Amino acid sequence: MGAAVSVMGRRCRQWWTVTLLAVLLCGCANSSLLLSYPSRYAKVAANADADPNAALEQLSQGLNGNDKLLYAQESGRIASLGGDVTASIDFYHQAEQSYQQYDWKAVFSLTDISSQVAGSTISDNLIPYRGQAYERVMLHQQQSLNYLWQGKLDDALVEVRLATQAQDQAQKAYADALQSNQAFDGGYVDSDLAELDRAAGNAPDSFINPYVLYSNATLYAAAGKENDALIDVRKALQLQPENPLLQREFVRLSCVVRIDCDQAQQRYGELAPADNKAGQVVVLMESGQISARQTFWLPFSWDGNYQQIAMPYYYQAQVTAPPQVSLGQQPLALTPLVRLDQLAARSLREQYPFILARQTLRAVTKHNSNKWAESAGGDIGSIAMQIFNAVTEQADRRSWLSLPQQGLAWQGAYAAGEHQLNVGSQSATIKVMAGRTTVVWVANSGARTQIHSQLI
């Protein structure tokens, strides 16, 4: 009788162990755990060019979930690429509200992980998406342009200042996180991260974006705030000292505000005399599509058993050539300002010590859970737990995937009047007025090209 009860008790514990793991897996089904975010987004991307409304409908399912910030960013960008500026503003506003709820340090460190029990013990994919510093900076830049297309320059300048604030706060948060005791010494994997460093290219950090700085400076200068514009161009030039576009704009603004004009011209060359009958034309181009995160398997041993953990990773990407652009009969040689895929890789590299720390804590928890499952459910419980841990060992590959691969720009004086801007096989008419600035935005994501212009 006692033996029978013992067998029944053991089977009951086995049943409860397997049932508990099944319930946990069901609860993960709608997250990016069992199906990676890039795989989910691929279905959206298939519709984004041909039918943006269908893509937005697919994304709407995630606007109220744990990853609502990510889905709001994607929706804002796709609405913008589809020409719906009003909807894009609304989606980006949702994303901004989500960002305001999160501590900047949560992007890098462990400050929030204690409250996310499932995420801390199972996978980063179950922790609500907090965004990346470079994404937040781009969000404000994209929103500033949205307001510009509506003729709301003051609102655009608010977003410009928020973009600057985001860059500064991200730098401080990262520095503070490095000084904490929450970073993991990942020196032993440095040799495995060489490809990630190559993918990051020349980007010194993920916070300061020369394309955003140049875009911000353009709006500042057009609004008569040349001093602020000069500050941003100087920052961008410090990152790209050989960039001819930034050099010319630095000289122009230095002479406008009469700050070190002679020194600037001696260093970078004199500008042609200004034509009072011409207007300034600034073309901002966003080309290609940013790369998705991949998975890198990091092996280790525990109690003599071979194990491995999944880490997010980037591989070096090939640059997608932007389409040819001309204004009237003049071909425009656009100057590259940023590779967003490099910023994304640098952002991940910056976070690796903290990701490794979380993964180490998680490995300890999973190791202990295996022991618990074996004692509670015997061989069946142990096997079930090992399967559960293997299935849930997925790298966090979430990131804003509708962003462009690179940002480029052109600036020059152009005769007053209406002119045709040609981008590949598409064209648009832009208006130029003497003494004023016309900002043109060209977003080419492959099959679709969106063109906006605004006279300021």
The helix content is: 40-55%
Largest sheet: 5 strands, mixed
What is the level-2 CATH architecture name?
Alpha Horseshoe
The CATH class turns out to be Mainly Alpha
Low-confidence stretches: 1-25, 113-118
General form: elongated
> What is the average of the pLDDT values?
84
How would you name the CATH homologous superfamily?
Answer: Tetratricopeptide repeat domain
Q: Provide the succession of SSEs.
A: HHHHHHHHHHHHHEEEEEEHEEEEE
Count up the helices: 14
Number of domains: 1
Fold and architecture overview:
This protein is α+β, with helices and mostly antiparallel strands and 456 residues long. The chain has one domain: Serine Threonine Protein Phosphatase 5, Tetratricopeptide repeat (Alpha Horseshoe), CATH 1.25.40. The chain is built from 14 helices and 11 strands. It has helices at 2-28, 37-48, 52-59, 68-81, 85-100, 117-121, 133-149, 153-179, 194-200, 210-222, 226-239, 244-257, 261-268, 340-392; strands at 278-287, 294-302, 305-313, 325-327, 330-331, 335-339, 406-415, 417-423, 426-432, 437-444, 449-455. The strands form 3 sheets. A 5-stranded mixed beta sheet has the order 6-7-1-10-11. The chain has a 4-stranded antiparallel beta sheet with strand order 5-4-8-9, with no helix packed on it. Strand 8 and strand 9 (426-432) form a beta hairpin. Helix 4 (68-81) runs antiparallel to helix 5 (85-100). The radius of gyration is 26 Å and the shape is elongated. The model is unreliable at 1-25 and 113-118 (pLDDT under 50).
Defining key terms:
456 residues; alpha+beta; Serine Threonine Protein Phosphatase 5, Tetratricopeptide repeat; five-stranded mixed beta sheet; four-stranded antiparallel beta sheet; 14 helices; 52% helix; 17% strand; elongated; disordered N terminus; TPR-like_helical_dom_sf; TPR_rpt
